[in-house]
Amino acid sequence: MFEVVSNDILAPSLHRMVVRAPRVAASRKPGQFVIVRSAPGEERIPLTIGDADKAAGTITLFIQAIGASTRTIVAIPAGGFLRDVAGPLGLPTHIEQWGRVACIGGGVGTAVLYPLAKALAEAGNEVTTIIGGRADAYIILKDELAAFSKEVLVTTEDGSMGRKGFVTAELADLMASPDTCPKAVFAIGPVPMMRAVAELTRPQSITTIVSLNPIMIDGTGMCGGCRVLVGGQPKFACVDGPEFDGHQVDFENLFDRLSTYRSHEAADCKLNRQVKP
Amino acid sequence: MTVPMTTKERLAIDRVRMPELAATIRSTNFEEVNRGLTREEAIREAQRCIQCKNRQCVAGCPVGVSIPEFIGRLAENDLPGAARILQHDNALPAVCGRVCPQETQCEAKCVRGIKGEAVAIGYLERFVADWAMENSAQLTTEPLPPATGKKVAVVGCGPAGLTAAGELARAGHGVVIFEALHDTGGVLRYGIPEFRLPKAIIDVEVDRLRAIGVAIECNVIIGKTLTLAQLRQDHDAVFIANGAGLPTMLNISGENLKGVYSANEYLTRVNLMGAGRLADASTPIIRGRNVAVIGGGNTAMDCVRTARRLGAERAMIIYRRSEAEMPARVEEIKHAKEEGVEFLMLTAPVAILSEGDGWAASLRCQRMELGEPDASGRRKPVPVEGSQYDIPADVIINAVGTGANPLLTATAPDLDVNKWGNIVAGESGLTNLEGVFAGGDIVRGGATVILAMGDGKQAAATISAFLA
Fold first, then answer.
1. What DSSP state is assigned to residue A138?
2. Is the dihedral of CA B344, B345, B346, B350 positive or negative?
3. Looking at beta carbons, which residues of chain A come within 8 Å of B259?
4. Which of A83, A256, A271 is facing B289, going by the closest CB pair?
5. Predicted pLDDT of residue A276
6. Torsion of CA B285, B286, B291, B294, to 10 degrees
């Protein structure tokens, strides 16, 4: 059992949960995730470790309640317990001295981006952070990111905060000038956002790292459910990732596989129609 | 039993038949297929054993169960006596009595099998183990030796790890098992379906180990949460039994379509997570109307029989050799056929096709014929030219095998592994690192529960000698 130390709402249906998991806190590195199962009978859900406090033995999880299982998790109040927390899983982010980097976060991806951007800054990189969301209420961790970023650029789809539009507009501006063009880009967010960023940086061959969050069960390489095509080869996001070269990822296949269980009820209906005369 | 039976009387008894749930009923639910013997049936079967001096059956058992001895007690209706012998020799007798391939091990060596049928050792093992579970009050608690003060870490809570842990605890060592998943049993729980091995059996067997002092910590992934070096530092010895890991990909086009599963994923969803099986399970599964399972081993049989139970109208085994070469147990093949599973032999998958909606729709296959024997001694399948055809299939399950999981070994660079990533360990379980031992599928590649248990037992003996 893993105690929920705190649980607060950062943005609509986006929770920040601090969980007591001393072993994970001691061994985790930026870019890694845990598998969480809230109670017996519940799904195993992969969640990126946003931050950790070794001394307190706690990890911070950012959870967007988008499905039944994530809603069950965020409903657990401080003082409650998660039945299972296993990790840290996945490969840590490869941190190096690139010089100038752009870190791009979309929606809950901004939370996943945070530890990575922080580690890049600590390694001596000049970090420009771009965060995007539907509206101002969905823009998270702006101040936290500003603490180590050279600049934090915000975009919203409705223009309620920062520039109206998508993160790619800000990135395109950075890329337009040799003085601001990043040596490497880290993009974490919805699949369409990561794909758009990768397409934008592809012509100039700017190294672009994306963090993928496919459907997963064990998180240890056993089931292969999280396989993604990278450079035409199947890779397991849980053990080979979750970060990959964005120019090599088959985003279309990833997007489609993510829809497996959303569309499977529809598929069931289709089958039933076929069976009946 | 006052007058001992003569050998002639024993030889006159016919082998018992295992009562089974009717195929039409069982193919729609997850209840155990084999129902178990009654006490009368078990005693009568035990009386068939002629108690040979030369105990060939024991030599055929990877964990060396004292077979004639426990059967002798059972024949005399001494169930506590039989249970004590069995539980002493085998950490998981109720599991072995269900999933061991006795027909190629102990029963293959049984003298009665030379002219007629072998004693049903597996059925008797199951009977005694089940009796012991239900009547644990009648069994005296096992006396344990004084604590040695030595601590042993076991990596993995599957058959090898559980067996080693039991043996080590009985030798007086402090034992803690680290398990990556959220529950115990390893492949026994995530891999073997409920209809072959009910989860309740695993729970009782695991509790019995806990009762003799074995500690189990779930959600700890060695190589991630803790490293081998950390374990070694905190314990006097480490036994690695983290099992076979990564599914082997088919490397055919369409493998990433929706509806395509590895056997591990499919079985884990249903067995460990309860998908499609338990009303309160949150984990989903694609049930499929036409399900094609690729492979001919026990895992393939487990998948295809599960698919039937989840409602597949057509559940098919796609295997590139012929039935004679299939590695699955005869009993599994028989049960699958009774349940309406189709066997498409000499058929190899070439591609998985969709109708453009991202879902698997059919499996393109190639007919094969058998040529000369290959390295495995089995006749090698060769493609028949111009014989490709498509089989409608909305769920396709890859059950061709697994490779070694690299999580532990990736963070233990000094530990010797072979070119497939399996840990190099001799029969005694010794690795190249002092105090580090290994066994089961991480050493063997994919093998059986009982061979893993044999490794666990052997390694425990080696570890006890090392700690002495």
1. G
2. positive
3. 260
4. A271
5. 34
6. -60
pLDDT digits (tens, 9 = 90+) for B275-333: 999 988 999 999 999 999 999 999 999 999 999 999 999 999 999 999 999 999 999 99
Tokens, residue A194: 């990561």
Q: What is the ipTM of this complex?
A: 0.91
Q: How far apart are CA A166 and CA A163, in angstroms?
A: 8
Exposure b/e, A59-93, CB count within 10 A at least 16 = b: bbbbbbbeeebbebbbebeeeeebbbbbbbbbbeb
Q: Which chain B residues touch A85 with a CB distance below 8 Å?
A: 219
What's the half-sphere exposure (Cβ side, CA atoms, 13 Å) at A179?
0
Enumerate the H helices of B237-290 as residue ranges: 263-267
Strand order in the sheet with B360-373: B347-354, B360-373, B379-392
Altogether, the residues listed in chain B come to a count of: 468
What percent of chain B lies above the pLDDT cut of 90? 87
A264 band by pLDDT with thresholds 50, 70 and 90: low
Query: Which residues of B fall below an 8 Å CB-CB distance to A?
Result: 180-182, 190, 218-221, 224-226, 245-247, 249, 255-256, 258-259, 261-262, 264-265, 268-269, 273-274, 278, 280-284, 286-287, 289, 313, 358-359, 394, 405-407
B436-438: strand order across its sheet: B215-217, B174-178, B151-155, B237-240, B436-438
Is residue A218 within 8 Å of B186, Cβ to Cβ?
A: no
3-class secondary structure, B322: coil
